[in-house]
Amino acid sequence: CETCGEEEAKYRCPRCMKYSCSLLCVKKHKLALSCNGVRDKTAFVSVNEFTDLNLLSDYRFLEDVGRTADAAARHPTVHSPTTKKFLYFLRNKARKCNIDLRTLPIGFTKRRENSTTFNGTEKKFYWHLKLVFPHSHAEYTLKGVPDDKTLADILKPYIDPAESDPVVCQRLKIYTVSPQSDVQILMKIENRKQNSVRYNELNASRSLLDNLKGKVIIEYPTLFVVLKTLKNDMVILGQ
Fold it and tell me: What integer is the mean pLDDT of 121-146?
């Protein structure tokens, strides 16, 4: 026993790994070392010592985190009148711009991550936007994109060789080396049958707001950037 040094040890503390012989010594060591006796699930474990038990422990820890996050999403404050009022305000403003904006129930991933806002002073939407580049298997999320910004300007930091980040440019190389005339921006048409998926082709030279008018948006726009010269299974409406 590492507390009294007299009796044979019977217990080992999951937290600090100290050996104890009795309940009395367990209590003494907790008091002396300010130890709570609870195993530290995030303690460092070297690769050489990593076992299946550590993997299982990590998996359960992540499950606990997921449950805690889900419980927070279901908290009454999330369903408060203020939240509902804001969503109604957002949908109403979108309707005035001829955009059918629809929101999902609390708990859905798109509802949680949506950061779209409307600035009453500027009378302008600042959209949460997702860009998908299928040919490079890449996705990027943008926040606070003003609705008067053209799609061409939105895409410049990604597919323009002169303005894009070197890391992004390398990942999207197939786009950056292609002429701009080959780039096509598509948006999925909502409320269609699963076996009849169609896309609208957007105009890169027009603003985000102009491109969203007359369309159904679920939470926020997701734009697919494809190349005309490469075969893909995205069927444009009318084809």
Answer: 90
Provide the residue ranges of all domains of the chain, joining segments of one domain with +: 11-74, 81-227
- Token digits of residue 148: 């008067």
Q: Write the burial class of residue 70 (CB in 10 Å: 0-12 exposed, 13-18 middle, 19+ buried).
A: exposed
Task: Choose among 40, 42, 39, 5: nearest CA to 22.
Answer: 5
In the chain, the amino acid numbered 90 is: L
* CA separation, residue 177 to residues 6, 79, 154, 202 (Å): 76, 48, 18, 21
Provide the 8-state DSSP code for 95. H
Assign 95 a pLDDT band (cuts: 50, 70, 90): very high
Q: Which residues share a beta bridge with 200? A: 187
81-227 belongs to CATH 3.40.190.10: no
pLDDT single digits (tens) 162-203: 877 888 888 888 888 888 888 889 999 888 877 788 888 999
Unique residue bearing structure tokens 């790994």:
17
